[in-house]
Design goal:
This protein is of the alpha/beta class and 105 residues long. It has four helices and five strands, in the order βαβαβαββα. The longest helix has 16 residues.
Length: 105
Amino acid sequence: MALEFDDSNFEAEVVNSATPVVVDFSATWCGPCQQLAPIIDELAGEFEGRVKIGKVDIDKAQSTAATYGIMSVPAVLYFKGGENVDQHIGLNPKSVYQEKIESLL
């Protein structure tokens, strides 16, 4: 199951993480986000212990979404060493996310 990130824990959980982190920026009103949610949960299970995978609800974490320039959801950002190193905007097949996560390891 994916972790939940918000304005209060984003820096500690993502920016200061010793392991790579994948963050799914989404919203409850977004159809493609709802389709992506189970994929993110599956990936969290597959990469548990190697990569931290979580979600940010942009309506509840507006400051974090603004900091990273989230203008469209779903947006999946990849962090390594506290830096945003890549991103995918929109819904993609699970394999696209798997390949990118593997490249972080």
